[in-house]
Amino acid sequence: MAKGRVSIVVERCKACGFCVEFCPTHVLALSSAFNSKGYHPPHVVHPEKCSGCDLCGMYCPDFAIYGSKVAEVKAQKAAGEKAIGGEK
Amino acid sequence: MKADPHGVLTGTHFIDGDHACCEGALAAGARFAAGYPITPSTEVVERFAARVPTVGGTFIQMEDELAASIALQGGVWGGAKAFTVTSGPGFSLMMEHIGYAAMTETPCVFVDVQRGGPSTGLPTLPAQADMMQARWGSHGDYEIIALCPNSPQECFDLTIKAFNLAEEFRVPVMFMMDEVVGHMTEKVVIPPADQIEVMPRKHTHKSIEDYLPYATNGDLVPEMAHAGEGYKFHVTGLTHDERGYPNMTPQVQDKLVKRLQNKIRNAADRICLFEEERVDEADVVVVSYGITSRVAQRAIDMARERGLKVGKLRLITAWPFPEKKIAELAEQVKAFVVPELNLGQMVREVERAANGKAKTLAVPHAGGGVHNPDDILNAIVEASRC
Amino acid sequence: MLNVIDDTVNPVEPFLRTDRMPHIWCPGCGIGTTVNSFARALIESQIDLESLALVSGIGCTGRVAGYVKLDSFHTTHGRAIPFATGLKLANPQLNVVVYSGDGDLSAIGGNHLIHAARRNIDLKVICVNNLIYAMTGGQTAPTTPGHATTSTNPYGTFEPAFNLPHLVEAAGAVYVARWTTFHVRQLARSISEAFKKKGFSFIEVISPCPTLYQRRNKMGDGLDTMKYYKEKSKVKHGAPTSEVGLTLNGEIVVGKFVDRDRPDYQSMMRAQYVEALGERYIEDPVECACGDY
Predict the structure, then answer these.
(1) What is the pTM of this model?
(2) Are the CB atoms for C248 and C146 separated by under 8 Å?
(3) Which of B226, C123, C147, C275 gives a 20 to 30 Å CA spacing to B265?
(4) Per-residue pLDDT reduced to its tens digit, A35-80
(5) Domain residues of chain B, as ranges?
(6) Helices B152-169 and B17-28, interaxial angle, to 10°?
(7) Domains of chain C
């Protein structure tokens, strides 16, 4: 069971590659999919290696990705928090 | 609301215009000033620096006029009534920030104690040559209000008016003194605080969720919030929409800039102040402001002694310009005589508003002193022969 | 469309005006990265967001003010610091952050930078330094290293560049640090430290401008630049600021260089008035001009 989980806001991504490069456990790679702006957003290739450190989130200049620890995920679910939508 | 008594130096004083202006600001509730020294305005802030620590408030002398003219706006958004004081060269430096105040609708007062120009000019001698600059000095389309006192007493009274107008219309107000009015010493009566009306800040009563920083009702003036109250609003000099967010389209530009203009123009009748005397049967009306109005009075008296029918129109509000009044008088009089301590600035407005219905005679003066009343008298005589 | 796979929230999200996303910064620009560090610092320091005000100037970094969900002011070019000074003096309860770029703060804003540092005004200044005037198309900035190519030095710059940590230390800043956008956690920590200090704090963040500075100087894209930061940065806490100047493609000294204590402007002002006026001094913060509302 991975310690962490990555969430990706595909439409914000500009494919700069920071998250892919600086993930310490190489969880991510740029996908071959496109978002509506024509960028290749990242996708998770090694989910089992994610520690939830959120370095991807700290590096992302577009606020398009973040990691959370699984324990956190459970706590937030319990608190009933909703993910915040971005684009209108 | 009534003035805060802490700032009101009730009593009869013998002080000059600069000092009276400072007292007017304090009486109006100004508790923050950012300044930079420049003759002949410096005494205003020197007095403020001496007074404000025992009244409650802050003065800071900034490193230049660029800093002073924006620091005062930070003070406004932090909750204070604020002003700065300068003369020609500093006024020029402040132009960008006057535009910023107009665009962000920051209520504040800019005092310009006019001196000879252009450039360094005549630091210790009067002129009235910044009048057009007061109106048009910053780039883009915007409106301001400008007031012209002609005595130390008016420097007190009209400074309060300036602050009140600034708050009512959320606009920078130009207080156009001149070196003579600033440095002449006369009796100034400061009434008790409960006899002084001040305009409170137009602060919103809306909840945090409902508040939009630049939404307006019919009066075209939005409600304000201050930093630190939880509204988490955004202010920008970019063309913006009602949320305060940059929205740089022709449609939003049209709506915003026209509203900034109309909020003043639609209220011009209410804002315009002038003093008229015996204009009803006049053949000639002398239009003047500031120190020149006092010299003009002498000329008018001399002309009347000669049997000429001369009226007086003294501009107290120079901007918005009282074009309706001039247009009305133009139907009746032969000519306007416009003496000014410049080579022709407000006279252009008179001419424009008269629209050919009456002649306009300028009585220019390059500055450095006041008119010889005879020069104004000669113009009145010439005008009456039109 | 959102593609979040669970109900978690990006820690930076509550600090953003999400109705204005996506932002205008280029792919690989580091400004957004600095905002992440800023948000983490706010969380870590437990700063009361309602008494935090953010002031920026003009430029790419200046746009930060429009994207953060705080009382924020996008002011004129170079004048964020004097505006922030006015805010702070009118309401000393505010925590005032200045977030602006190298051109805005050190060229047109240079005079205000040194005076605010001299006076030790209690401001936290985050200076994102991309070594260029980015927004206007890549002109030379006072921080552009020698021999770089810019649009106003098409044959290469030849002026010495400012060493900003050295400049602000000499002017009187009490906290001076430099990081790059690679050093996300250290940057967050420095910002937190600055929040705990009273006085003029200055944190420089070297950041890529892939579209202009990096491209014109054949330095690759944002990611290449981040790798360069990772490889060529040297952490030297307490290094003499005279020795941390930047060169084209050279070593980048990062770290906390200055952390000293001096009374801040308002403390000095208060002390002076108390000494001169005693009980006559009225110290209350500037009254709200509102009247009853």
Answers:
(1) 0.95
(2) yes
(3) B226
(4) 999 999 999 999 999 999 999 999 999 999 999 998 766 666 666 6
(5) 5-195, 275-384
(6) 40
(7) 13-280 (3.40.50.970)
